[in-house]
Amino acid sequence: MDWNVILPLASSVLSLIFALMLLDQWRTRHRPYQLVWAIGMLWYGLSAGTEWFGGAYGWSEPLYRAWYLIGAVWVAAWLGLGTVYLLAKTRFGYSLAFSFVLAALFTYLSWKKYLYADSGIAIWLYPLIGLALAAAIMVLTYRGDHRWASLTGAALVVGTIASAVLVLTAPLAAPGYYVDPATGIPAGTLYPGYVRLLTPFFNITGGFALVLGAVYSAYVFMPKRRVVHYDLSTDAGIGTFLRNLVISPFAIVINLVASIPGALSALFRGQLDGRVAATALIALGGLIPSITSGMNRFGETGAFFLGEFLGVVFLFAGFVVSAQVISDIRVPFTDKVLLRRTTPA
């Protein structure tokens, strides 16, 4: 039994089924985040499909390029963008802006640590783009302008096109692909620095949005105990706002931890909002593959396929449980309802 074949195949099939369900829901409800998540899960399924094909029939240069482009660059970013659109009318833009700052920092630090050959101007260009987007998103969120989500979407579309050009045209040494000889799992080792530095930029922002967005939603829907108070309204002036903005990440973490006992009590009484469990599952589904793909980047490839499979399982479970996303579960593109919710989405 070859797990390097079975796990990617299972991940691919489940991801593509999930993508069809989301696309079907978007067809009837026209929520932007459903369409974007459907695209993200399509990338997830195609990426896992390349891994299955490579494990079963052997790798080739075109297959390796497709795997890197779709899986290493696109998946996390598009799934995160779905969460961005879901939370477009909240102050989540501040968190997203911070993730772009982190992406800029880690892009530069990745180059500094590994000194990737042929990085060129990417070591400065990618961080500058990240910082510019962070500033723009911050300003729009501060003004209460929900177009920060649309700006993020437009930036990702441009980045998707640019990354396709870079990945598909980058020179690769023979045989045109690389798999870890110990595990048989692919890694991006052959790519030049200007391509490899795309991955922290896309994955940190996307993974951060998906995971933190789910945690943020769980915090919103759980019974809360506010130990540390803060206020991100702009009425009190820029100075007060900036002080509260600095306090807010610590306040949210402290308040979240302090609220867990009350949430558990509500769970045991059967009074906990179902969306708390759903968003917790989504957070796990984003976190697990983020960790294992990060390990893959640093040469620890053994858990990559397992993390990928667990990620899609938890994401699927979380999105199905969430009445925000799916009201009726039915055979895609038909009227045959498999499960109808009593809580409207």
Main attributes of the structure:
two-stranded antiparallel ribbon; 72% helix; 2 strands; Rhopdopsin 7-helix transmembrane proteins; single chain; mainly alpha; 11 helices; 345 residues
> What is the helix fraction of residues, given as a range?
over 70%
Give the averaged pLDDT, no decimals: 88
Which spans of ≥5 residues are poorly predicted at pLDDT below 50? none
- Judged by helices, strands and strand pairing, the structural class is mainly alpha
Biggest sheet descriptor? 2 strands, antiparallel
Q: Write the CATH fold name.
A: Rhopdopsin 7-helix transmembrane proteins
Q: DSSP helix count?
A: 11
Radius of gyration (CA) equals 21 Å
Brief sketch in words of this structure:
By secondary structure, the chain is mostly helical.
What does this protein structure show overall?
- It is built from eleven helices and two strands.
- Helix 1 packs antiparallel against helix 2.
- It is mainly α and 345 residues long.
- The model has no long low-confidence stretch (mean pLDDT 88).
- Strand 1 and strand 2 form a beta hairpin.
- It has a two-stranded antiparallel ribbon with strand order 1-2.
- The chain has a single domain, classed as Rhopdopsin 7-helix transmembrane proteins.
Q: How are the elements arranged and paired?
A:
Blueprint: H1 3-29, H2 32-57, H3 61-86, H4 92-114, H5 122-142, H6 147-169, H7 193-196, H8 198-221, H9 238-268, H10 274-297, H11 304-321, E1 328-330, E2 337-340
Antiparallel strand pairs: 1-2
Helix pairs in contact: 1-2, 1-11, 2-3, 3-6, 3-8, 4-5, 4-8, 5-6, 8-10, 10-11
